[in-house]
Amino acid sequence: MTDEEGIIHVWSPAAEKYFGFSEQEILGSSEYQLFYDTAEEVSQGGIRFSWRYRRDGEVLFVQEQVVEISDPDDHDIRFMKVLTDYTAQFTPAEECELWVAHYAKRRVGVAAFDLQSQLFSSLNESFAKNFGYTHDEIKGVSYGSLLTPESSNLSPRVLEIMGRDGWGVFNVTYRRKDNTTGLFKAEVVPVWRDGHVVMSACHATNEEWTSDISKALAKTATCVVDNIGKVHSWGPDAPMLYGYSGEELQDYSLLCDEGSKVEWSPQTRFGWRRRKDKSRLFVQETILPFVDDGIENQFLIYTKDLTNRLSDSAKNKMMTLHRGNVVGAHSLLTQ
């Protein structure tokens, strides 16, 4: 059972068996640590299908049913969340189809394609519309056919990175039905079977699309660093969060507590960061491989400010989980 922010207040013995976290470890923590899809938001009602992490790193495909529970004598609102494991009941293509259905009427473009055939297996109307096609016109075609020659040449490397690292964020140029071109960012959710990535579920956004991901990344800063932590670019929200401009801060380690070990690899981690005014933030960082114009060995960092959303005990727990190399939200270290 969680509150409106996704903080876990009740953890049943069945949930402990299901996910591998004890009640003592999980209470007061955010359910974001269980989310596999980086753009997924905390649900406050209804039914949806998505992926969840176990403590041992295994990924489950689940149905989540959410019921609001309120007490007329209490202003607090709680949400009971019942999850059923359907991993063995669906193929990867069926999982992606159910996942896409959650975004059916939303303005964020989502799609899934098979890594072997490179054909789209499922997508929502927003994804097709922003390429100038209808849903039926684009389903079943190769994703490579939508890319410009420059980005098409990048496809083999994208597939290699996906197979190696799982997660990836890629800037690619695409060609619309009317032959005009545009740039979009593709954030890819890998679907695993028997230790291999077999499907990719993709969130696609560009400067013209009104995206639900923007809401999911509220109070989130983005930046791109290389494998030694040099900052190559800042997203528009980073200066607001940290107080630095892109020109002022080129070394990411300056944001970290003294003595902190900063590692650059696909993972999610929790820790303290420093603003320009020396105040401190407790953050969740999701680090994904990033390829832009063929340049590799870069990482895109989503930094979410959790300072006022978690209790002190929850912050300590999240730090302990990270130091213990436990797979938290979206981490693939043990895959």
List descriptors.
335 residues; alpha+beta; Beta-Lactamase; 3 domains; ten-stranded mixed β-sheet; three-stranded antiparallel β-sheet; 10 helices; globular
**Helix and strand composition category:** alpha+beta
The profile of the biggest β sheet is: 10 strands, mixed
Radius of gyration, CA atoms, in whole angstroms: 20 Å
Strand content: 25-35%
Q: Specify the CATH architecture of the largest domain.
A: 2-Layer Sandwich
CATH level-3 fold name of the largest domain:
Beta-Lactamase
Helix segment count?
A: 10
Query: H/E series, N to C?
Result: HHEEEHEEHHHHEEEHEEHEEEH
Q: State the CATH class of the largest domain.
A: Alpha Beta
Overall spatial form: globular
Low-confidence stretches: 207-219, 324-335
Helix proportion of residues, in percent? 10-25%
Query: How many individual domains?
Result: 3
First and last CA, distance:
28 Å
Give average pLDDT, whole number: 76
- What would you give as the CATH superfamily of the largest domain? PAS domain
Number of strand segments? 13
